[in-house]
Amino acid sequence: MNATDRSDPTADLRNRHRWRLIEALPWMTAFAAFALLPDYAALGTQIIIMIIFALSMDLILGYAGVVSLGHAAYFGAGAYATGMLSALLGWNEPLTGLLFGGLAGGALGLLSGLVLLRYHGLTLLMLTLAFAILLQEAANTAAPVTGGFDGLQGISIDPIFGLFENDLWGHHYYWYSLSVLFLVFLVARRIVHSPFGRSLVGVRENVRRMNAIGTPVFGRLVTVYTISAAMAGIAGGLFAQSNAYVTLDVLDFARSGTVLIVLVLGGTGRLYGAFLGGAVYMALEDELARISPEFWEIGVGLVLIAVVLFFRGGLLGASDALVRRIKGKSAG
Predict the structure, then answer these.
(1) 3-state per-residue secondary structure call for the chain
(2) Least enclosed by CB within 10 Å: which of 73, 159, 189, 213?
């Protein structure tokens, strides 16, 4: 840091917010994947939805240090809100439907966050889990509007911009989902490289110190929790639109566990960890389920154990270590 930087406390934030060439890699990979494997566009759409969901989880877990076992509640809220808007009210416009899903997730996140975030540690874990279970049971009980165990049927989404239908191969929805991911990523990136985002890291590292210096810790946690829930709601809304159905599975504990696994695989506290973890997990699940539909989870579990034991910081941390090693050898 030069003399000018030392005199300007915001210089580090501006430097972090500057785009780097390496950040083009995930987006170029998405373009290349579609060009090389167009028949897998539907799988690519599901990977993108998982990445958006993992980004939402990373905001609260990786940056604010809030662990949740019930994040599927907001994903499911967005999926049901978007699906019910179409199936019950006949509102089939995709962009506003997706916005409605995000608002539903965000509103639920705000209301629940005001209660849940007053607790910490194991108590918070159990409360988030109980909240998601209660919501799933409520969706099952309200069968006349949610479809209950049979799922919500009759979702019909208009062509995007009146031009692009959800074709059989999912090509249009791949680009639609990728565009949504880019917008969500811009928001997440802006947050984590802002003074607000740095204060979240401070809360994660030492909440007592942040309280002592006058940081409104609870308010900031509720704010980021609400934003995270809205992002999860958008992921859920995309899921409902791309699959044209919603079942109780969207609220299941397994979905909350899966997004945690994705983050651990990719690396928490770094936005691109969600990209790497989401892509690797979904590709592994698809390939292993094709080879062995009954035992694919064993393969995923073994990979997760290997990453936790040998790659601190997840796969993204391992790739950083490899790059540093190569640079070290080149310099030597």
Answers:
(1) CCHHHHHCCCHHHHHHHCCCHHHHHHHHHHHHHHHHCHHHHHHHHHHHHHHHHHHHHHHHHHHCCCCCCCCHHHHHHHHHHHHHHHHCCCCCCHHHHHHHHHHHHHHHHHHHHHHHCCCCHHHHHHHHHHHHHHHHHHHHHCHHHHCHHHCECCCCCCCECCCECCCCCCHHHHHHHHHHHHHHHHHHHHHHCCHHHHHHHHHHHCHHHHHHCCCCHHHHHHHHHHHHHHHHHHHHHHHHHHHCCECHHHHCHHHHHHHHHHHHHHCCCCHHHHHHHHHHHHHHHHHHHHHCCCCHHHHHHHHHHHHHHHCCCHHHHHHHHHHHHHHHHHHC
(2) 213
